[in-house]
Amino acid sequence: MVSYLLVTRVINPVTGQITNEDIAQLNVLGEEGTTIETFSELVLTDKLTVIGGASNQLESVFSGPVTFQKKVTSQDEIQSLEFTYSNDDGTVLRKTFLAEDDGSGLPVTQADSAFNTGDMCYNIDWQPGQALGWIYDAGTWYKFGLSDTTPITSNRYSGVTHYGVGIAPDATNRMKIGGNFHVEGNLEVTGYYGAADKYTLATGLANSNNGTTYNGDGATATFAISPNHTSYSLLVFLNGVCQVPGVDYQVSGNSVDFSIGTVPQTGDTIHVRELVI
Fold first, then answer.
1. Which of 50, 82, 154, 202 lies at a CB distance of 3.0 to 4.6 Å from 274, suitable for a disulfide?
2. Is 94 helix (H, G, I), strand (E, B) or coil?
3. How far apart are CA 9 and CA 19, in angstroms?
4. What CA–CA distance (Å, rounded) separates 109 from 26?
C-alpha cells in the first residue's frame, strides 16, 4: 500500500508513524522513511490526501495545467482569475473573468485575446447604480446587470407583469412612474393622454377638458390660466373666433392679457383652452 502526502507533517495511515518533512514524501508499506524529492510522473490508484500542515494553511502548488475528469468539491471558496467553460473535446465555449473599466465604458482586455459570443466580464470598478459588467456578442462588449433597482417594483395582474418606478404598480397601468422623467427625442402616443390636476383652470379633468369660459365687461383685460404657459401654448377664442397670439393677446404671469389688442366688451365670451406643455 502506498500513501503520498504533500505536507509538512505526515501521518502514515497504516502504522500511524508521524514524520516531518518539507519535501514530497513517498511511504511504501514495509519501507517507511523512503524519500523521493522529484517525480516525473505519479499514478495513484486510490486517493491523495493533502493536510496542509498543522494549521491546514500550507499551500500545494500546481505550476502546470491540471485536469480533473470528475466532479470537484470544495468546502471553502474557490479562487481564480478566470473561469473557462469547454465541451468534452476541449473546445472553449464561454469565459468568465474580471476586468477594470477603461474609462470609456468598456472592459480592459489583452489586445490579442479572443472572445466568444456569450463571454462575461465582471466590472472590478463596479459601484451601486452601475452595470455589473459586460457580455460579449459579435465583436462588441455590451453592459449587463442593471444594479440598484430598488425604485423598480413589479407585480403580475391576470398573468401580465406590470411595473412601477418610484411608485407601486397597479392593475390599470402597465407602467407607473412616480416623479419627473425626461424624454430626449420624440414621444409617440397611440392612445389617450391625460394631465390630471395639471391644468386646474382650462383643461383640467375636473372641467371635462372643455376649457374655461369668461365673460367680458369692457374693463377687465386679464383672465386667469395655469402657470408656465406662453402665448403659443393656448387656444383663445373671443365670441368663437380664434385669437392671434402676440397680436390679439399675450400671456402676462398666469393670465391671458388682451391689453395689447382690444379689451373684451360687455357681452363678449372668452374661451380658453390650454395645450399640454
1. 202
2. strand
3. 6
4. 43
Cell, residue 167: 411608485
For cell 425626461, what's the residue? 182
Contacts of 108 (CB under 8 A, 6+ apart): 99, 100, 101, 102
Q: Helices marked H in 137-274 — which ranges?
A: none
Query: Minimal CA–CA distance to 275: which of 173, 198, 207?
Result: 198
Write out the chain's pLDDT in tens, 277 residues.
Answer: 444 444 445 555 555 565 655 444 555 444 545 555 667 777 888 888 888 887 888 888 888 888 888 888 888 888 888 888 888 888 888 999 999 999 999 999 988 888 999 999 999 988 888 899 999 999 999 999 988 888 899 999 999 999 999 999 999 999 999 999 999 999 888 876 666 555 555 554 445 556 788 999 999 999 998 888 999 989 999 999 999 999 999 999 999 999 999 999 999 999 998 887 7
Give the Å distances, CA to CA, from 110 to 80, 82, 139, 222.
17, 13, 14, 70
